[in-house]
Amino acid sequence: MGRGAACRQPRLNRARGTVRGHPLEGSAPDRLTFSPSPRARLQGSVKVMTTKHHRKPVRVVGAYAAQPDAVSELEAYLEEILSLPGVGGFEVSWGAPGWERDAPILADVLGRRKDCAGHVLTLIGAAATAAAKDPAVGLASPDPDGRVRAVQLVAAAHRAVMEFLARGQRIVAVELHAFPTLPQAEAGQGGRALERSLCEILSWDWGGTTVVLEHCDARRPGRWQKGLLPLAIEIEAVAAAAAVSSTPTGMAVNWGRSAIEEQDATAPCRHVRRLRSAGLLRGVMFSGATDRDGPYGMAWSDVHPPLKDLAPDSVMDRDQMVATVEAAGNNLLYDGIKVAARPPQTAMKDRIALIRGTLAALDVDLV
């Protein structure tokens, strides 16, 4: 099947309750929506917020990666991050393990903060959990049932986005991922499945939110972390889906996952340039990687170490971050950081210091 065929002739699975490319209400678990209360469900129309690319991107922090274990500290932690200079919002790990516990606290914090520029919803935790339970589940799954189940998960996230928008909280992007892990020989089939999934997802009204595919490390010979699709295949699938949809879409780079893929700190810059050249680059998230075993685990693990100045084993130094920012140019929709703290008992003030220090390296003037 040629590129674009999946979009031109969508396959509807009525036995599973799929109508016009969107699973019916209730086909995906309602417990994954943002609000634990049914009163928070969208009522009436949502004001459309048109996504535009600004010279200065919305800066977000993936606070969940460094959040304290004590739930009693979470509210103050989130408030302090939003008070950091330049921070416009959060990268929110929607539907991930712990989401039901954390969501009401996050809702309270955001309900009091009316000055946020916007947030990014990432499905990485939810999608990885689903794929761990059943390796056939994913937007890029050649297995029809596994692919439909992954689309249904995105449908639940779509409802959550609509609820955010109805509360006046801007969601600049929702990040999707090309699960499951496939043998290299099946990557082409995975790309076609991904295109079909994206065509269905882009047919929904996202209220101006951009649908973004975040590249994760591709499966290669030997050891890998996420082991998803090669960048070239993802680019082809996203471009084909974008060509037949008016929904804003594109791709994002996670600095650490690109470095992990090639075990090379210069790889993220190359990936950024490639996506920018393809006209698909929408976001860059800075999360480090290590090239040796240490406090952050085994070398080249996806565990989010911060800037090298703050974690000596990290390969994400200031020069690499500046080079990546410059390669991305000045038309990003969003950028930000996601870093973790070691050891686990790190005090909250030190967690904030890791975030503040890594953010400071992003302050690059582009002309």
What's the topology here?
Blueprint: H1 5-8, E1 18-19, E2 22-23, E3 58-61, H2 74-82, E4 89-93, H3 99-112, E5 119-122, H4 124-133, H5 144-166, E6 171-176, H6 187-202, E7 210-215, H7 231-242, E8 249-254, H8 255-262, H9 267-277, E9 281-286, H10 318-328, E10 334-337, H11 348-360
Parallel strand pairs: 3-4, 3-10, 4-5, 5-6, 6-7, 7-8, 8-9, 9-10
Antiparallel strand pairs: 1-2
Overview of the structural elements:
- By secondary structure, the chain is of the alpha/beta class.
- It has a single domain (5-360), classed as Divalent-metal-dependent TIM barrel enzymes (TIM Barrel), CATH 3.20.20.
- It contains 11 helices and 10 strands.
- The strands form 2 sheets. It has an 8-stranded parallel barrel, surrounded by 7 helices.
- The termini are far apart.
